[in-house]
């Protein structure tokens, strides 16, 4: 974006980034996985120090042939590639689901405002309620994926509670997901428009399909959220990494002597860092810096649709035609 241009509201929150004060290569806290991998790095550094000390000062030769290391390196590399690719696939799949859901909410909102049963004040109130409910579904999905159950207090999150149908309590304590419950209000509105003749049968079917696509996208995100990487793979991954890092000092101590200590620390940092990235992004719906910016995406969608809704309420929808 040119420096002279003022950023406008489309994607305002989603695209907003703080200027970087330090190059990414020098960042060790915010957004990194270093805090999660410091323990194994310190352990293998100390272990290598012990191996080198025994080999150099106690005259006990601990060196072993280094021919096994390349073969084990290939196995470790393949495991890490699969681990990270599967994790990023989950991250990218979740982001695509969010995008598809927002697109369907946009389409339904536009169609309701322009083609819905809006002949009377009561009809227009129902249309406003349906559009707000669609936006509320975005907030409900975000909260549900974070296991933030229940409807928040009005003072806690007014931009969410103001969108919900009046008097709605929710039945999450009975095992009903709030996005699914909100979908009933939207489907009821589509049926009303079909009975009134505002939506012909093909149109009503198309609108219901888009509503179903929202629920399908939410279901796919639930699958990502509730399906962890198989524990057998995680166990074997940890064991292979440990075996490699424990064997490495013995294979390089004869050639590198004390230089083996920083070398093992660097290799452990690299391998465990890659594995830590996979763990970080396999559940992309949380609040970490590396997760999908759900709050900002939902906030942008709310701003976009409520602005159009306010114009529509004032009878200015012809400005968009």
Automatic annotation (TrEMBL):
Membrane-spanning segments: 33-54, 60-82
Is-annotated flag, keyword Transmembrane? yes
Per UniProt, subcellular location reads as: Membrane
Q: How does it sit in the membrane?
A: Multi-pass membrane protein
Q: Which UniProt keywords apply?
A: Ion transport, Membrane, Transmembrane, Transmembrane helix, Transport
Any one GO CC term of this protein is: membrane
Chief localisation class: membrane
PANTHER family this protein is in?
PTHR33281:SF16, UPF0187 PROTEIN YNEE (PTHR33281)
What name appears for this protein in its UniProt entry? Bestrophin/UPF0187
């Amino acid at each position: 974006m040119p420096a002279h241009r003022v950023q406008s509201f489309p994607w305002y929150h989603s695209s907003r980034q703080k200027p970087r004060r330090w190059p990414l290569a020098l960042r060790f806290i915010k957004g990194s996985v270093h805090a999660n991998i410091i323990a194994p790095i310190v352990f293998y550094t100390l272990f290598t120090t012990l191996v080198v000390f025994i080999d150099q000062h106690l005259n006990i030769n601990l060196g072993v042939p280094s021919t096994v290391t390349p073969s084990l390196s290939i196995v470790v590399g393949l495991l890490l590639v699969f681990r990270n690719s599967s994790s990023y696939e989950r991250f990218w799949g979740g982001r695509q689901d969010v995008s598809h859901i927002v697109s369907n909410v946009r389409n339904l909102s536009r169609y309701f405002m322009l083609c819905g049963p809006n002949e009377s004040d009561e009809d227009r109130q129902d249309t406003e309620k349906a559009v707000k409910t669609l936006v509320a579904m975005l907030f409900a999905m975000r909260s549900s994926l974070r296991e933030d159950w229940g409807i928040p207090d009005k003072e806690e999150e007014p931009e969410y509670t103001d969108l919900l149908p009046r008097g709605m309590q929710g039945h999450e304590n009975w095992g009903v997901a709030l996005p699914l419950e909100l979908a009933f209000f939207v489907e009821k509105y589509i049926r009303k428009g079909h009975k009134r003749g505002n939506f012909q049968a093909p149109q009503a079917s198309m609108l219901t399909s888009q509503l179903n696509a929202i629920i399908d996208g939410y279901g796919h995100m639930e699958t990502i959220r509730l399906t962890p990487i198989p524990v057998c793979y995680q166990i074997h991954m940890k064991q292979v990494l440990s075996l490699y890092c424990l064997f490495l000092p013995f294979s390089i101590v004869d050639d590198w002597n004390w230089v083996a200590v920083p070398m093992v620390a660097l290799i452990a940092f690299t391998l465990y860092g890659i594995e830590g990235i996979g763990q970080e992004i396999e559940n992309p719906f949380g609040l970490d810096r590396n997760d999908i910016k759900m709050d900002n995406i939902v906030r942008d969608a709310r701003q976009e649709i409520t602005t159009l809704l306010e114009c529509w309420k004032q009878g200015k929808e012809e400005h968009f035609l």
